Amino acid sequence: MIRECHETDFEALYTVINSGAQAYRGVIPEDRWREPYMSREALRRELDAGVRFSGYEQENRLLGVMGIQDVLDVTLIRHAYVVWEKQGQGIGTRLLSHLMAKTVGPVLVGTWADAAWAVRFYEKRGFERVSSQEKDRSLRKYWTIPERQAETSVVLRRDRGGPVRAF
Length: 167
Hints:
Blueprint: E1 2-4, H1 10-20, H2 40-48, E2 52-58, E3 61-71, E4 74-82, H3 91-100, E5 107-112, H4 116-123, E6 128-129, H5 132-142, H6 147-151, E7 153-158
Parallel strand pairs: 4-5
Antiparallel strand pairs: 1-2, 2-3, 3-4, 5-7, 6-7
């Protein structure tokens, strides 16, 4: 079941994000890795900035989360994570489809350039990588991230919401 996450889900969000982020260990630049990957304080800042999470729940356990954030004239997909042991089972696709159904305009997602599986995930679902110049412009305009993270990221775009192809 996919549902909206609430304040009472804070600890579960924190757990899912940090479990799912283990996929990036050793892949993203070493100077960008932290333990935990997302602190409670950073998660709180994201929620306070308007990131709204949806979660995939099974047997009363949150197994995946994905956020959405409206910024200016676009919608951002933020913080998409599935617990480590459940990755590759279609949970991310279900969450993305759920969120895309809520959007009507351009949707952007940023991810680590070296996380080839993450880039492929979005490309298979209708997103296209933007040019280097557009990436730099988009990261400055829509995100608040450190310069080093911007240097090592890619941005993908889909011009409107709607159904997502499942694979």
